[in-house]
Structure formats: C-alpha cells, structure tokens
Amino acid sequence: MLTVRVTVQALLKTANALGYHTVFCGDKPDDLIAGLADECHEIDWEDYSSLLKITADVEADGIVGVCDKAMMPVSRVSTELGLIGNSPESIEILLSKNKFRKLQKRAGVFCPGHVLVQNIEELDIDALSLRFPLIVKPELCSSSFGQTVVNNMEELKAALPAASSNSRNGRVCVEEFIEQKTLRAREIDVFLMGDEIIWDGMRDCYRIERAPLRPVYSPQT
Questions:
Q1: Model confidence at 127, in pLDDT bands (50, 70, 90)?
Q2: Nearest Cα to 96, choosing from 73, 126, 116, 76?
Q3: pLDDT over threshold 80, residue 44
C-alpha cells in the first residue's frame, strides 16, 4: 500500500502543478494526500457504484486507477461515462496472468510453459511437460505478492496455499521460471491512443538479493 500512496501523491502533485481540480477516491487518505487533493472520498478500491456516482457528480474529465484492484472499476466507469481509458476487456487480460500468457501465445511472442490450477490435485507436472525451476504466482494480484520460485514437487506443494491466498479468485499460475542472472532489469511502458504510440519509455529497474522477484527501485531520469 505504501507504493500506492506514493503513486497517488506523485499524481496529485503533478495534477496540481497543471491546474487540475483533483478528487481522490479510495482507502482513508493520509494527511499528505488529503492536503493535495481538492476532494477526498473514502470508498473501497473495488466499489464500482460509488466510484461511478462520484465521477458523474463532479463531471470529471478523466479518471486514473493507481492500484491493481481498482483498475476494473476505473475502466468500467471510463467506458460508462465516455472518458478516455482502457476497455474492461483489455484490463481483464492485463490483470490476469493466465489470460496475458494466452495473449502472448496468440501474438506469437515468447511465452514460458504454464498452467492455471486451484490446488495440487489439478497439477500433473509430467503430463504438462513443465520443467523445474518453476514460479508459483497468484493469478490476480500485483507487486509480486505470493510469488515463490520452487525446485521440486515438495516446494511446489508448500508454495500453492500462499499463492492462492494472495489471489483475488484463489487461482494460481504455475509456470517455468526464466532465471535472471542480474538484479538489474529493463522495463518498458508503452502508451497508445488508438493505433498510435504516443509515448514509450524504457528504464532500469533494480531488485534486492533478499527479494529478487520484486522490483523495488527505479532511478530517476
């Protein structure tokens, strides 16, 4: 949640500098967020009905989601009110690790071997031709929570409950782990308007040895 609050603060500071009237909707704001936003509404991140009413009432020109579980309500509201934004169908694919892997396969780009399961009984490694090491991931969760790299079946069995408890639908993705030999990674963000790329950014992203699966630091550029 710290990352979300830092992101909200950065967005509000930028919006204020550009002269926008800002309305924060989400968990109880801290003092800094409350001081930056022109209005604050304490609602659940996933509360579509409240978000739709507030957005319509203030006649918002735009809406921005800042955490994983807020993205579907935000996309539904932007579609309902005719605001610029991603469709619920596209967001659903981007949020689901399983659906995104299927998109990769349809696009013909690299995709590690993977399977979606609810429990260990659904998993037959030999039949699926998956090779260790594997990474166990919640299907619906962000920020690398609940992810574990495993090297054998015993570790896999132990990792499934943690991944399932972090997944918003209880489902777990098990896929072949692509080992990275450095704690430095390259990330790319691409923004599209229709078929036009309006901005693309590449940056270094760093991890730490005790948590190599989670991005923790991006240098300022």
A1: low
A2: 116
A3: yes
